[in-house]
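Hey team,

Filing this mostly as a record. A colleague (T.K.) asked me to run one chain through the structure pipeline before their review meeting, and I want the input and output archived in the tracker in case anyone asks later how it was produced. No errors, nothing strange. Just documentation.

Input sequence:
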Amino acid sequence: MSLNGFLEFFHQGRTFRPKKRFTSGTIRYSLHKQAQASLQSGINLRQVVRLPEGEILNDWLAVHVVDFFNRINLIYGTVSEYCNDATCPTMSGGSRYEYLWVDGTLTRVWSSQFIGY
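Output structure:
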């Protein structure tokens, strides 16, 4: 395959995502079905995040960034009660992916340290 063909494959107006199969009856399957249903609910996301007429962009962004930060903080607070240095010794995305801190060299750190950097 030529370089042009390779690049065309990834620039077809969509994000490349491998297909995942989940076993029916599992929690992952249930979560996957809920996510699919919410994505197909008919909500126009571009319309939802559009700057309302008459609003100042920086003010609108500031309000939403603070709201996003607060929501992430709530999620992190809940997760950190169960995921500490003893229970989550590495920052990982399941068994297949481990995230390393890069600050000149690759460094393996606990998940709480990774978030703290």
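Quick notes for T.K.: The mean pLDDT is 81. Residues 84-116 form one domain.
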